[in-house]
# Entry
Amino acid sequence: MLELTNITKTFNPVTINEKHALNGVNLKLEDGDFVTVIGSNGAGKSTTLNAIAGVWPVDTGSIVIDGQDVTGLPDFKRAPLIGRVFQDPMTGTAATMQIDENLALAAQRGKRRGLKWEVTAKERAEYNEKLKVLNLGLEDRLTAKVGLLSGGQRQDLTLLMETLVKPKVLLLDQHTAALDPKTAEKVLKATDRIVAEGKLTTIMVTHNMRDAIAHGNRLIMMNDGNIVLDIKGEEKKKLTVEKLLHQFEVVSGEEFASDKAILG
# Structure
């Protein structure tokens, strides 16, 4: 479903601020893979997601989504293939619009848009049923402005919006990092349910090593712009923070640098 081949990216080349962000990243995801990505600051986690989403062009390499080479496509032309939830709960929804209006916009991803604006009774009934699954009571607040929702409610709503039309790849960029632990846990439970029910091919970047171990069927660790660990199957099920840190030290020859990731 997703294949990255020899992806490189350097920011501010030939300047004092030159930064080699990605150094030949190779990654292949099968249909339905749920991959968590961990690494210290500057390891290349979010940069990889931005490369997939087309936020900026890569220097070398290719990106193929569901058999389509999207390497040269700008982000808006990749949008029909990709769903994305950001770290900031304020991103991904239109605060001054109603919940049903946000969902109606999301339902149009990848489709031709006309002048029709009204949300129909049939659409409201559909959104009502989908919102019930979140167990937040939002199905009774369809006409409420999204700006009135809490951060956790907005992230859950964004998750629903990004998967209303099934994406080829779902990108979760530290989508619980700005939430308190209790709210983050609720959002992660909703994430697991939505990904499992939709059989979505998903990449979740996280700063929490325990979350990276607990979720998904595969774990990737990045360091200095490359993938240094790729753990899946039974090996991942038996993984602990201590074992993961040991494996990182073996392959990299250095200690893991992020206390935040280790302590969760």
About this structure: Residues 181-198 form the longest helix (18 residues).
